[in-house]
Amino acid sequence: MPAGRYAPSPSGELHLGNLRTGMLAWLFARASGRDLLLRFEDLDLDRTVAGAETQQSEDLHAMGLTFDALDGAPLIRQSERMEIYAAAIARLQQDGLAYECFCSRREIREAARAPHAPTGTYPGTCRDLSEDQRVHRRAERPAALRLRAPRSAAGTAEQFSVEDIVLGRITTEVDDFVIQRNDGAPAYNLAVVVDDHLTGVDQVVRGDDLASSTPNQAYLRGLLYGWHAAAEVQYAHVPLVLNTEGQRLAKRDGAVTRAALQEQGIDAAALRDLLLVSLGLPAGPLAQALESFDPTALPADPWVFQPPGS
Ligand code: GLU
């Protein structure tokens, strides 16, 4: 069954921006007859907060969002899928598509890059280390693993594009991005690709702050699972919610979570309606809003929210 997914990180309470993205993931999936999977991205143990998963599930269900089971399981937890990620990483290594990187963040920031290389891309410092150099560096610091992205004969990176329902074509250079962190944990960009593919996800709806990593992810999906299947994936990077200063909404902005809004007299149904209206949809049950939902008519601008009582 083709599926969409909503993939929050259980690092605290969901705020209005997260809930709005979740609602959009539901609308996109249901409007196209897809299942919708709930996946908790809890690989980063330092950020995972006890109880957040339960609370996030309750918030989503309270607004009327429904999710589908996968092989009988009501949700997916990345921390339970370590062997699956390890197998994908091992396959890339066997195919010569991964290399050890010993750089610190600072070294990467300060390294010289090719002219016009996009900021944030890896400068390639460890790409061509000799085995002797690696042995030496291993003694100093544990290695992360990076994807050995394609390069032209002249050493330039390859461009890769995806079509996005909201943003149009997104093109970036394929970077030597991290696939395994230097603490041994699989990297976000790898886990997302592996999960999406192996759980039948062919529709990715998420905040537009993640749009720039999408060509890298789509490239990795093609490499691991075939270009044809990768090209079929539908992407929708949806606008964020901003505070009145134009910054991305955050919990410090006041009453922006379900619990805090409830205290201001806004219950789950009113919260659902607030979000629906912000999307130009009629207030009321989600099934009714679905009838008016047009994925191609989504507002492309962020929604500015002023928390009640602020
Ligand atoms: N876990 C990510 C977040 O909460 C979303 C990742 C994704 O949808 O691919 O921002």
TrEMBL record:
It comes from the Bacteria. Transmembrane segments: none annotated. The keyword Nucleotide-binding applies. GO terms for molecular function: ATP binding; glutamate-tRNA ligase activity. GO terms for biological process: glutamyl-tRNA aminoacylation. GO terms for cellular component: cytosol. Residues 5-274 form the Glutamyl/glutaminyl-tRNA synthetase class Ib catalytic domain. It holds the Pfam family tRNA-synt_1c. Keywords: Aminoacyl-tRNA synthetase, ATP-binding, Ligase, Metal-binding, Nucleotide-binding, Protein biosynthesis, Zinc. Coiled coil: none annotated. Belongs to the class-I aminoacyl-tRNA synthetase family. This is Glutamyl-tRNA synthetase. It comes from Nesterenkonia sandarakina.
